[in-house]
Specification:
Mean pLDDT: 81
Low-confidence stretches: none
Structural class: mainly alpha
Number of strands: 0
Distance between the termini: 16 Å
CATH architecture: Up-down Bundle
Largest sheet: none
Number of domains: 1
């Protein structure tokens, strides 16, 4: 549950940071772009949010 929560919060906050920075947020080499790119990699490494929700639901229902 903590992994799902952390990945969702990180994704939401980096998306907001990119929106605040506008076009500069997408420029290669900026800190915001790096965080956004790393967040996508970590989300795919941990597994998709849907799969984590399914595992949590199965665990709670068993």
């Amino acid at each position: 549950m903590a992994m799902l929560f952390a990945s969702e919060v990180a994704s939401r906050q980096t998306n907001r940071a990119v929106q605040v920075h506008g076009g500069i947020g997408y420029v290669r080499g900026s800190k915001v772009e790096r965080l956004y790119r790393d967040g996508i990699v970590w989300m795919s490494y941990d597994g998709s949010s849907d799969m984590m929700r399914r595992v949590i639901a199965e665990e709670l229902l068993s």
